[in-house]
Fold this protein.
Amino acid sequence: MTTTTYSAPDGTLLAYRAVGSGAPLVCLPGGPMRAAAYLGDLGGLSRHRRLILADARGTGDSAIPADPTSYRCDRQVDDVEALRDHLGLDRLDLLGHSAGASLALCYATRHPERVGRLALVTPSPAAVGVEVTPQLRRATTEGRRGEPYHATASAALERLIDGSAAPEDVAAIAPLQYGRWDAAAQTHHAAAAGQRNPEATGVFLATPFDTTAIRAAVTSHRGRVLVLAGDRDVSTPEPAVAQLAALFPQAEYAVQAGAGHYPWLDDPDAFTATLAAFLR
């Protein structure tokens, strides 16, 4: 895996790593504002495409910008466009995970002619104004009753919902983000704190999305789109993801059984089969 840098329009030096072979697939990580390292090789998807794993500004090997307001999701569209130009591509095949899907949608809104295939993996629906309600999170959590961590995680989730959570409650709900809370999931979660930029996360989350413009772009999008949800994902519950998928005129919608927010960890074979078929 090699690391390459390029310059954003404001002069910030940005980085990406390339892994695998074949036609490039630009991968926009979530978090929000988490270094792309957590994507790994997306469960072996690198066997089918050359993954361009982009570190957002202020994360991973990318530099901290002079202007912290440039962490806003809509402001980072220029970074994606600079990456396209750096790669010498007329159009980008894009994969956006979680909050990275919001950036992919903002990019597609501003540069629709530059988007090839668009894969949105357990996407945040915030950019199109779809709310992830407490009821959806509760229903997803209830489906995991009987698992050893359910009672503790469920109680912590309620405190997060009502605003009374302590720091340890954030850790308590971690098992709900994965399809299974095994050693791989625990290792993946343990790395998260060192991969995030807290200041950037706050700015990104405060992005004032132009949901009217983004929804208009989505409903008129004519390219190939895949929207993938996990049926055990409490972060972006499947019913909310389904609402996002339904806005596209002809999106392929897939629900990965037994998957949480990181479906390539829960079942790499199922994940790569779905993505490879779409991207073929």
Q: What stands out?
A: The first strand starts at residue 2 and ends at 7. The mean pLDDT is 97.
